[in-house]
Amino acid sequence: MSVKKLLQCVPNFSEGRDKDKIEKIVDCFRGKEGVKLLDYSSDEDHNRSVVTLVGEPAPLQAAVVAAMGVAAELIDMTKHEGQHPRMGATDVVPFIPVKNATTEDAIEAAVATAKEASEKFNLPIFLYEDAATCADRKNLATVRKGQYEGMAEKLQDPTWKPDFGPTTVGTAGVTAVGARMPLVAFNVNLGTDNLEIADKIAKSVRHIGGGLRYCKGMGVALEERGIVQVSMNMTNYQKTPLYRVVELIRAEAKRWGVPIVGSELIGLCPMEALTMCAEYYMGIEAFSMEQVLETHLME
Amino acid sequence: MSVKKLLQCVPNFSEGRDKDKIEKIVDCFRGKEGVKLLDYSSDEDHNRSVVTLVGEPAPLQAAVVAAMGVAAELIDMTKHEGQHPRMGATDVVPFIPVKNATTEDAIEAAVATAKEASEKFNLPIFLYEDAATCADRKNLATVRKGQYEGMAEKLQDPTWKPDFGPTTVGTAGVTAVGARMPLVAFNVNLGTDNLEIADKIAKSVRHIGGGLRYCKGMGVALEERGIVQVSMNMTNYQKTPLYRVVELIRAEAKRWGVPIVGSELIGLCPMEALTMCAEYYMGIEAFSMEQVLETHLME
User: Fold this and answer.
1) How far is A40 from chain B (nearest CA, A)?
2) Mean pLDDT score of chain A, rounded to an integer?
3) In this predicted structure, what is the pLDDT of residue A2?
4) Inter-chain contact A36–B297, Cβ cutoff 8 Å?
């Protein structure tokens, strides 16, 4: 049986208001063999659309490159306004390993996509996160700093020469193409209305505060419910599993006499992020994803 | 998007020694559009082969009927010897809902398969478990009681008139075709070598002893490891989830001062049986299988 590699790709486009333009971009992902459009959503305030795709590397790359061309043609960044930071018509394109695929496969797809799109459409492109060519370019926020309006100047700085394409900026702006692990948005709810406690716990469990390597987090008040939560992005659920952050929050919350009252998964989450938790809490010995029926249904 | 119904089917054939005959039967499941052969294994002592299939109802039924015909032709039950109870060349054929399918869909497939196979091959067939036409026929062990050798007489009893086919028994014997929920084989290991404790706990958590509705179980010694386990079949993981039996065993084991030291999943298990446990232990609010990425990859 041939093993198909599957990648996820979540391109973000700087158009969230003009339905006609949005549909023309999204059409690049419809009816393509080997590419599945899972979801897309637009935000008018952000003036931005986020598309979720899954597919085999080659057809996925081809569809994304085609959409980048359509976006470059339809979106004029000199006229773009919106709340979300952005620097290009196609703003950011992360590739994510999903099945039978590694981070290396995602990096390969990112590099191939960046190269082809820059050549076809004369776009300046940075590689970021796991695909970054130097430490400075790992963090998307650093790459995008200055936003579209600052890019013409930024690209003249030799340390910010794009990985692909020209050092000049057109109406399509600049794109960041990268590779990363699936991100799991996971919140843990606490039995208190004291936001300070959620904040303190968030700071102690997140990476920058001395906590878990692949955890970003902050305290958030759920005002209607009169409780607070530790709101997190888990950036590598395989190396920092969800159960670990739950148990660490439980331990930290104990000192405040506060119980965990629930949790929330936001958006999509890989099955393995959950089976790892079942495995931990029930102590399942020698567990393998091959024991999950659905693993065999996707081949 | 059209929603495909998927059923699992696990036919058991009374041949576990003659590789040539086994392959001829299994060939009925190869290269069939809409049918996937997940696994097959043969046991020489039992003289029996178990095939695991997944597929859409119509092609799955067609392939199973074809295999029942091949088995009826190749297997002579008058000469069959083996340790496992059996009554037919194709001994038992359970259909199991897997995805976008209900127990009713599985019953429908069972009835259609039983009808077609009995007509084509003149086979006496009983419907069992969820497909049973009366309470007496729900339990496979009751249906199969007397085994092949006792069937000629049993079928003369009006209460044991087959649901389909003749009341006479040929060399292909009698088949039970049914519908059931996926069965999860799940064992919980205890930190003691005292088999009596495992037995007592098994009796208290299993259905017939006053325990959980969809749990069968017994105590088993793992002699090499010097521990014992509660070895279980969970017959409806949606209504009696795995975490519930783990926590009940934990509570019962406490009175003996015995800890749970681990657990084991045997064979395949539906993803939902595990995500339900993650949901319970982490208290995930408003969780839905739609949040699992893989749910969307199987469509």
Assistant:
1) 14
2) 95
3) 56
4) yes
Q: Which residue of A has its CA nearest to B55?
A: A297
* Pairwise pLDDT comparison (A76 vs B297), residue with the higher score: A76
Q: Which of B242, B278, B297 sits opposite A274 (nearest CB)?
A: B278
Nearest Cα residue in chain A from B37: A296
Superfamily of domain B184-297: Formiminotransferase, C-terminal subdomain (3.30.70.670)
Q: Tens digits of per-residue pLDDT, A170-200?
A: 999 999 999 999 999 999 999 999 999 999 9
Give the one of B264, B271, B287 whose C-beta lies nearest to A285's C-beta.
Answer: B264
Q: Which residue numbers of A have CB closer than 8 Å to B's CBs? A: 6, 8, 36, 38, 54, 98-99, 182, 189, 242-243, 246, 260-265, 267-271, 274-275, 277-279, 281-287, 291-294, 296-298
Kindly determine whether residue B294 and residue A270, on different chains, have CB atoms separated by under 8 Å.
yes
Q: Is the CB of A281 less than 8 angstroms away from the CB of B281?
A: yes
Q: How far is B260 from chain A (nearest CA, A)?
A: 9
Quick: pLDDT tens for A157-177. Answer: 999 999 999 999 999 999 999
pLDDT of residue A133: 97
User: In this model, does residue A239 exceed pLDDT 70?
Assistant: yes
Class of domain A6-179: alpha beta
Q: Say if the Cβ atoms of B282 and A246 lie within 8 Å.
A: yes
B296 is catalytic: no
**ipTM of this complex:** 0.81
CA-CA distance, B28 to B38, in Å (whole number)? 13
Q: What is the pLDDT of residues B193-233, one digit of tens each?
A: 999 999 999 999 999 999 999 999 999 999 999 999 999 99
Domain positions in chain A are 6-179, 184-297
